[in-house]
Protein: DNA repair protein RadC
Amino acid sequence: MQTTNEATNSSLSFLDNVYGFLREPDGTYSAKNISETDVLKMASFIAAQKINNRVCIDSPKKATELIQFKMGKPEHEVFACLFLDTKHNVIAYETLFYGTVDGASVYPRQVVKRALANNAAACIIAHNHPSGDPEPSQADKTLTKRLKEALALIDVRILDHMVVGHTTYSFAENNLL
Structure:
């Protein structure tokens, strides 16, 4: 049976053949004659591997990087959750709701259902502002309070609510949780 690192290394080694990347022993990659599309596919694959291997979210920076990458730059508002275990290892990243250019309907009941389905102990919630301005609205603050209360009933903590725009706004770093 393979260990997690062996499984990751073997699944990453096929990237040599598929995308033209060469993984060096120190974990870095080199490539020749690859397209921008190949780079994006490679980045997406590596991010998926990190989630599948339960990477630990041990800093706001790591959470921000993962959420910014997974969320991308959609033209409409999306709401997602990063579900974590008791040691803050990633269980799953799920986009739960899709909206319009200036809002998305988020239902606490559905967030609670997904947290239970993932057996999560904690989560980081996130949504984007297609306008690029990450400043949270009053509706964002109210939603965070409602979700915090709903998830607390099932002993799931919200560690942060991130609003992704040109930059990322963290509720936790701004003492709004």
User: Anything to note?
Assistant: Confidence is low (pLDDT under 50) at residues 1-17. The radius of gyration is 18 Å. Residues 36-52 form the longest helix (17 residues).
